[in-house]
Amino acid sequence: MKKILLGCIADDFTGATDLANNLVRAGMRVVQTIGVPTQPLQAEVDAVVVSLKSRTIEPEQACTQSLAALKWLQAQGAQQIYFKYCSTFDSTATGNIGPVTDALMAALQTDFTIATPAFPDAGRTVFKGYLFVGSVLLHESGMQDHPLTPMTDPNLVRVLKPQTRHQVGLIDHTVVAQGEAAIRARIAALRAEGVAIAVVDAVSNADLLRLGAALSDMPLVTAGSGVAIGLPANFGIAPNAQASCLPPTAGLQAIVSGSCSRATNAQVAAFRATGLPAIAVDPLRLQQGGQAVQQVVDEALALCQTHLAKGPVLVYSTAEPDALKSIQDQLGVQTAGQLVEQTLARIAVGLVRQGVGQFIVAGGETSGAVVQALGMTQLQIGAQIDPGVPWCAGHTAVSDKTLHITLKSGNFGTPDFFTKAFQCIV
Ligand code: ADP
366 C-alpha to center of ligand 1: Å? Predict the structure, then answer.
């Protein structure tokens, strides 16, 4: 098996797909694994993204998992390691961006790395160390109210400092704008001052490409998915159509949606407006568990069976904020979430057994539950449907056919995503 070039560790599942998508667009062939594989890689690719769920777990556990991923990636030959986190720098007061960076630096015996969540295509820019989301600063973007990782300070140098035992510095835009040589000189100067992690400004893709060139010999890069656009060129790779080639597709078409985000609500509404079959799952029917859940699953699958041969079918629990709140008040947020995820995952398994070969899943947590229930361990990344959302292909444990699947995180995709995606599958 050919050795891989770039080894990536992502702290969440849909973020891993986002990174993989950017690498594919820059010409790399990429596989995303679900967790740390137990076997050597069975694919000829340039990069692997190991997806963890380590964003908000205990820092010690996040480090242990990330180091296990590092070890596996090194065994596959990775020449450079990329630690990927959210483009809004999601972290708690104690981690996990800092602790995982420290642990990876120690394991790689490297004394310098960068940190930047900049992803201008998604409206994330960093200037003078301050992170903007669209035209507002991070702490005015809604992220200040995030239930798990409230981000109340937009200054990334200040945010990172308490999370790491290293000195944190800044490579600001005046340097980045001058290009590779200036960035390398600034890195050398920071290093001489004892700085080990540099937050880097970037407000455009041109900045990211200039930065990418300056990172060619850096053993560890830590970033959002944006920096990835500048790295494949360092390995002599240019954008090409082969990178996103997936095996031929066959099979019926279905969508399972457990996301209640604004974009997904619009997508469900647009799909229903086409008159195509849409089957609603009522969470209140699931509260008894056991038999009640089985009945909902059986009914949904029976309805799907009657429609699937004629075209795409949607099964959804997606609800508008008021309806969602009412269900959560009655069942509890956690219980409702888990009941719905497990039900949709069982429906997904049934759909693949019924012959679905082209499958859209909406929702980050929902995607995790579905992929797990299908027993998928590895996804080959294909062409982008919308920014951050590519088609993928992989084997499941419930069918001997390759499944084409796309995992759409809540707020991604245009309103017609649920029909458009099937039109751009190749
Ligand atoms: P997103 O990517 O939009 O955040 P997720 O799948 O990550 O979507 O999260 C949505 C959560 O809401 C899941 O836990 C899901 O099970 C839950 N959920 C979905 N529909 C409903 C509903 N109608 N009532 C209560 N909870 C729901």
Answer: 7
Clarify whether residues 179 and 303 are in a common domain: no
213 Cα–ligand 1 center, Å: 40
My answer on whether 198 and 299 are in the same domain is no
Q: How far apart are CA 288 and CA 293, in angstroms?
A: 8
The reply to whether ligand 1 has any atom less than 6 angstroms from the CB of 64 is no
Say what the pLDDT of residue 146 is.
Answer: 78
Q: Which domain holds residue 159?
A: 6-240
Examine the domain organization and report whether 271 and 196 are in the same domain.
no
261 CA: nearest ligand 1 atom: 3
Please tell me the distance between residue 265's alpha carbon and the centre of ligand 1 in angstroms.
11
CB 271 within 8 A of CB 278: yes
What confidence score (pLDDT) does residue 144 get?
A: 85
Residues 116 and 231 occupy one common structural domain: yes
Closest CA to 123 of 132, 134, 131: 134
Calpha distance 51→58 (Å, rounded): 17
User: What is d(CA 29, CA 20) in angstroms, rounded to the nearest whole number?
Assistant: 9
For residue 322, is it within any domain?
yes
- Which SS3 state, helix, strand or coil, does residue 209 take? helix
138 with 62, same domain: the answer is yes
Q: Considering the entire predicted model, what is its pTM?
A: 0.91
Say whether both 213 and 283 belong to one domain.
no
- Averaged pLDDT of the chain: 95
160: helix, strand or coil: helix
- Confidence label for 409 from pLDDT (cuts 50, 70 and 90): confident
Answer whether 388 contacts ligand 1 (Cβ < 6 A). no
**In whole angstroms, what is the distance from residue 409 CA to residue 16 CA?**
11
125 and 257, same domain (yes or no): no
- What residue spans of 26-128 are helical by DSSP H? 59-75, 97-108
Cα 356 to Cα 309: distance, rounded to the nearest angstrom? 10
- Ligand 1 atom nearest residue 14's Cα: 2
Report the atom number in ligand 1 closest to the C-alpha of 408: 2
Q: Which of 17, 90, 257, 260 to mutate to test the pocket of ligand 1 (most atoms within 8 A of CB)?
A: 260
Nearest CA to ligand 1 atom 11: 337
Residues 49 and 179 in one domain: yes
